Amino acid sequence: MKSILIGLIISALLEIGTSQTCQKSNEMDETCGRYCYTIVKQLLDHTKSLEKQVNVQESELNKALLEKFENIEQQLRTLQEDLTEVKKKSLQRRESEFRRFYEKIGSKYFYIEKDKKMNWFSAVQRCRELDGHLINKNCFYLIDTKVYDYYWVILTELPAVPTSCYSKARTGQTQITTAIDDCNKLNWFICELNEN
Predict the structure, then answer these.
(1) pTM of the predicted model, to two decimals?
(2) Which CATH number characterizes residue 124's domain?
(3) Do 159 and 96 form a contact (C-beta atoms < 8 A)?
(4) 116 pLDDT band (50/70/90 cuts)?
(5) Beta carbons within 10 angstroms of residue 184's beta carbon
(6) Number of alpha carbons in the 13 Å side-chain half-sphere of residue 81
(7) For the chain, how many structural domains are there in total?
(8) Which of 33, 36, 118, 192 could disulfide-link to 123, CB 3.0 to 4.6 Å?
């Protein structure tokens, strides 16, 4: 019986201690809760304010970037239009130069020099300046009715350093001759427009 009584007393004491501890714990939670809530609420409010600022700055930055991209796109469109216009004018200028120098005979364009005789090398250089090359001997028949003297020609492809220079001439109504000539001799020349 003594042991039961001791057990009951210990249980009662434990019960009283536990309820006091729980009550103190609840009181501390309420006190801490009120204190902590005030501090945490300020932190939450500050975080919300910062989030709004970040959103506003992000929105302004996106708007500024979008304006810059639109500006860049407009500049690119303008540059593209300008480039197209420059190309168009360049082609028109080139065509007018060709009309001034070149004559269309058949499906090709030729420049027949009528003012100044040149050696083979100068004739090649002048044709390059006019965006052409010396006429190929196989095309000479296209213009043979327009010429009556010796003209520089190339045989097939233009070598870097020629071993022989060739001239072609119409010496009569129907006779056309090809001859190996001195490259430094002065002859007329005919340029054929490059097809590019």
Answers:
(1) 0.47
(2) 3.10.100.10
(3) no
(4) very high
(5) 10
(6) 6
(7) 1
(8) 118
